[in-house]
């Protein structure tokens, strides 16, 4: 599976380094006190409930970054449908290294697998439509790279990664600025000034704002908290002149009806902020 463009070696190295420093600091004293330095052992990563597995590749990178001598044998890869009782991978090497990375690996994989599982379930309701399922910036600080990666593993599409890779004029931007027309005009001038052709998305709350955003030249119009009929009217008004995105209070049961309006995208913060962790464990192989 191809990783999203923001999942780079440098970004992952930085994330892993910071997480290990947070957890270990001057040392994993429980392990240092009880486990001989030269003890070699093996552990298995056990799946304890059905899920779409995510974070396997990340786990291998974590193990290797902490201890390059650890050997990881992957049995299930990211995006695989796993069942309770399956073994995702084996890790062999220094018992100290295995124990010191155990919880970090599990935290990442449990959270990522939960997000991938929820995303896969939601995305399956859009099969046969042109509508794509997007995540949002409603992510955990310093863990966004994993959460958005998990959405992609689950079959969803990543929205902008951060504040830097797209201009998104939300209600507060418009209210502070004065009008959609003025805000879009200034945004276009800004992108020309910095020589960066960022797409401009505008959040709208009613059909009047949709018309104004369309006339102002927005690249994408976000239909915020609109009912299905208003979304349908908005999509008809836009007429394919720019992209449309439904957002705000989206639930699983609404997906098919919203897709039927013809919107290009549906974005849902629930993919990352409301997914349940999947039960996984790392167990010693005796």
TrEMBL record:
Keywords: Glycosyltransferase, Pyridine nucleotide biosynthesis, Transferase. The keyword Glycosyltransferase applies. It is an enzyme of class 2 (transferase). GO terms for molecular function: nicotinate-nucleotide diphosphorylase (carboxylating) activity. Pathway: Cofactor biosynthesis; NAD(+) biosynthesis; nicotinate D-ribonucleotide from quinolinate: step 1/1. Residues 115-283 form the Quinolinate phosphoribosyl transferase C-terminal domain. Pfam families: QRPTase_C (PF01729), QRPTase_N (PF02749). Its EC number is 2.4.2.19. It comes from the Bacteria. Residues 28-113 form the Quinolinate phosphoribosyl transferase N-terminal domain. Belongs to the NadC/ModD family. Involved in the catabolism of quinolinic acid (QA). This is nicotinate-nucleotide diphosphorylase (carboxylating). It comes from Kaistella daneshvariae. The gene is nadC.
């Amino acid at each position: 599976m191809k990783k999203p463009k923001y999942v780079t070696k440098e970004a992952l190295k930085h994330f892993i380094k910071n997480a290990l420093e947070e957890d270990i600091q001057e040392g994993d004293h429980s392990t240092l006190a009880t486990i001989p330095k030269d003890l070699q052992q093996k552990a298995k990563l056990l799946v304890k409930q059905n899920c779409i597995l995510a974070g396997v590749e990340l786990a291998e990178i974590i193990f290797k970054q902490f201890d390059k001598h650890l050997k990881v044998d992957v049995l299930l890869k990211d995006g695989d449908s796993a069942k309770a009782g399956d073994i995702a991978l084996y890790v062999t090497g220094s018992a100290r290294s295995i124990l010191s990375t155990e919880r970090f690996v599990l935290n990442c994989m449990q959270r990522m697998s939960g997000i991938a599982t929820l995303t896969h379930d939601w995305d399956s309701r859009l099969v046969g439509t042109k509508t794509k399922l997007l995540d949002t910036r409603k992510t955990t600080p310093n863990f966004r790279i994993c959460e958005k990666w998990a959405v992609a593993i689950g079959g969803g599409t990543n929205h902008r990664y951060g504040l830097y890779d797209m201009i998104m004029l939300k209600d507060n931007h418009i209210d502070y600025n004065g009008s959609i027309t003025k805000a879009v005009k200034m945004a276009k001038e800004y992108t020309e000034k910095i020589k960066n052709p960022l797409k401009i998305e505008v959040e709208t709350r009613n059909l009047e704002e949709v018309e104004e955003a369309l006339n102002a030249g927005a690249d994408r119009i976000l239909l915020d908290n609109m009912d299905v009929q208003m979304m349908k009217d908005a999509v008809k008004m836009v007429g394919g002149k720019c992209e449309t995105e439904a957002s705000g209070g989206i639930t699983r049961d609404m997906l098919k009806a919203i897709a039927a309006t013809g919107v290009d995208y549906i974005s849902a913060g629930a993919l990352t902020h409301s997914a349940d962790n999947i039960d996984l464990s790392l167990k010693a192989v005796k």
